[in-house]
Amino acid sequence: xxxxxxxxxxxxxxxxxxxxxxxxxxxxxxxxxxxxxxxxxxxxxxxxxxxxxxxxxxxxxxxxxxxxxxxxxxxxxxxxxxxxxxxxxxxxxxxxxxxxxxxxxxxxxxxxxxxxxxxxxxxxxxxxxxxxxxxxxxxxxxxxxxxxxxxxxxxxxxxxxxxxxxxxxxxxxxxxxxxxxxxxxxxxxxxxxxxxxxxxxxxxxxxxxxxxxxxxxxxxxxxxxxxxxxxxxxxxxxxxxxxxxxxxxxxxxxxxxxxxxxxxxxxxxxxxxxxxxxxxxxxxxxxxxxxxxxxxxxxxxxxxxxxxxxxxxxxxxxxxxxxxxxx
Length: 327
Description:
The chain crosses the membrane at residues 91-111. The structure is a single chain. It contains 9 helices and 18 strands. It has helices at 10-18, 23-35, 37-52, 65-74, 81-87, 90-115, 253-256, 266-277, 302-313; strands spanning 122-126, 132-135, 141-144, 149-153, 161-172, 181-185, 188-192, 196-202, 205-212, 215-219, 222-226, 230-234, 243-245, 258-265, 280-283, 292-298, 317-320, 323-326. Strands 1, 2, 3, 4, 5, 6, 7, 8, 9, 10, 11, 12 and 13 form a 13-stranded mixed sheet that branches. A 3-stranded mixed sheet has the order 15-18-17. Helix 2 crosses helix 3 (37-52). The protein starts with 9 loop residues before the first helix and ends with a strand.
């Protein structure tokens, strides 16, 4: 297998550094590192972060597993750190920042859950089937949609405020320029110092929509700044990030029970209805997809909303089994 310049799973690299990888996983990482200079450089960057992470900022006692593992790693000769630091480019630091967040998240889970046998230095919240609101140690407020999970430190003691998210949440971040608020969601990193925005990650697609302030969204070596009323959709496919302006507020229905449409294209309303109600609505006539809707739906049933859309645009609605088709 040719591993030259191929992507390596970040979790596996962390397991390798922690000495927790299986023999097969160790062999896989070793082969990947040996396959190219670029792979070796990426690995050394990971190790550099690991070695230089201040233990005191991680709120870890000397007796715990993290200290033992740090000592274990330091016994292994490392590459020339000064040389590596000089060669790092700004774009590379963005990727390293994302790796730092990932490493921290994995460390919380691994070292506190597994090694400390129940000692709690992080908080995990699963919203399950309901919307939950949680206030973080810095005063930031997070509203979790159903089927979502968030993990964060019991205290923000590092130089940034790292949070891991699965699912969907609305963040109202307490301002603190000295400690950026960093969210890790799949392979996407969101960085802010104080603002409000929505992050949704389902089925390999991550959508970030900004309500106030400025948000930086990072994926690998690409990044983009979002302003209020803008969003970015990030998929698993490689490529640059591009933003677009949103019309209305369809993203926060789980908090407000409102669908605010402001010249919103019909296709976006249909997508929102499918997500919210678990419906199967499709538009058979492509000319209908861009029809603009300006209204607010609040507390109405799916049938009532479909009726309003049909009456407004004189659209024929065909129902077939569970399907609703606009023609």
